[in-house]
Amino acid sequence: MDLPPEPAAEFRMHTLATDGAARAGVLHTAHGPLQTPAFMAVATAGTVKAMTAEAVRTTGCQCVLGNTYHLMLRPGGDRIAKQGGLRRFMNWRGPILTDSGGFQIMSLAAIREIDRDGVTFQSHIDGSRHRLSPATCMELQDKFDSTITMVLDECTAFPATPKIAQQSMEMSMRWADLSKQAFRPRPGYALFGIVQGGIHADLRLRSVSMLKSIGFDGYAIGGLAVGEGQAAMLRTLDVTVPNLPHGAPRYLMGVGTPDDILSAVERGIDMFDCVIPTRAGRTARAYTTAGVHNLRNARFADDPAPLDPACDCTACTTHSRAYLHHLFRAKEILGPMLLTWHNLTFYQSLMRGIRSSIMLGQFITHSAQLRASWAASEVAR
User: Fold this and answer.
1) 273 counts as catalytic
2) Rounded distance, CA 35 to CA 154, Å?
3) Are 193 and 249 in contact (CB under 8 A)?
């Protein structure tokens, strides 16, 4: 697809093709275009683990994701601002999305105190106390020069009773409104609201309605992939996605496996992020066109074949499975580096195939072929 060579003066989504609910398009941003559906590599603390920014670019990744909570603790918003923003600080030339810290409100529940106006964290690094409110969250992401800013929200834990999920959702909606008031609009930049409500359909619909009344540049679906299982996640998407504004990007936070991504694209999701490809790379798990391989397995010790003959990453074009097996057995740092490189390349190849199939009106067929290939590989093993 043709992309404009210059950064956009206005943040907007241009849909190029649809296939059922699936859609392919381009997000025009202040820091360049982002082709959708897109998978964003997770750069929590300003780095994609085991990767240089240039290596991440070679995978085909167009946008990375940083985390406000972690960057607030170190190196801090002021220090990043003095370095010219997070993009310059980490040498990333494309768009950056920064999560607000809402996931840490759930995952670090033992070291935080939450109230209707925000959350106070006890640093997991040195025990110091840090306050995050909707206003300070917007200020920090402004200092990071984030292309896409996320509102402060609470990622509701699973399981949650309807009452607890409602209270959590209503507080997140209050914070969304306050975040919108504190956000500083700039040409080509965006603020996304986050739908909450657990797996309760009525709460999700109320959350969507409240966010639409506030008005955002894009809409994320949060609070999923936290233990509810794929079936419950997809039921929640079936309720939520059709009610989101058609002309705005839709972002499913923290998802997921290749199969999750296919299922979510089928329901109209445009953007994804997840630690799975990088975490798997550090633990010897490789995503390939023939399924998932564990490179620690003894069957690879003498295997001269490339990891994935269909992949053009450095791991696959210059090294054998036997060598990758050796690196992990010897606990050499190069092993996680190469496998992370490969997994990110695989995910970006997956997204390119998805985009192409939507443009051709063949997404459902393409998805079925991928799933059949993965299933056949699992049976063969």
Assistant:
1) yes
2) 29
3) no
Angstrom distance (rounded) from CA 381 to CA 379: 5
CB count in 10 Å sphere of residue 375:
11
Question: Amino acid identity of 322?
Answer: A
Beta bridge partners of 292: 287
pLDDT band per the 50, 70, 90 thresholds, residue 381: low
* Cα–Cα distance, 285 to 336 (Å, whole number): 9
The total domain count for the chain is 2
Token pair for 89 = 């600080």
CATH number of the domain encompassing residue 152: 3.20.20.105
Do 248 and 331 lie in a common domain?
Answer: no
SS3 of residue 149 by DSSP: strand
pLDDT digits (tens, 9 = 90+) for 50-105: 999 999 999 999 999 999 999 999 999 999 999 999 999 999 999 999 999 999 99
Q: What is residue 1's predicted lDDT score, i.e. its pLDDT?
A: 44
Contact indicator for 97, 67 with CB cutoff of 8 Å: no
Rg of the chain on CA atoms, in Å:
20
Cα–Cα distance, 48 to 131 (Å, whole number): 26
User: Active site includes 270?
Assistant: no
What is the tens place of the pLDDT at every residue in 277-286?
999 999 999 9
Among 19, 145, 270, 273, the active-site one is 273
Strand partners, 19: 22
Residue 318 structural domain = 281-380
Same structural domain, 78 and 172: yes
Q: Which two tokens stand for residue 176?
A: 């969304």
Tokens representing residue 169 in the block? 């959702």
Annotated catalytic residue within 99, 145, 153, 217: 99
Q: Give φ, ψ of 216 to 5 degrees.
A: -135, 165
Q: How many CB atoms lie within 10 A of CB 114?
A: 15
At residue 63, φ and ψ (nearest 5 deg) are -145, 140
Residue 187, SS3? coil
340 in a structural domain: yes
DSSP code at position 66: E
Q: How far is CA 299 from CA 173, 374, 381, in A?
A: 52, 19, 11
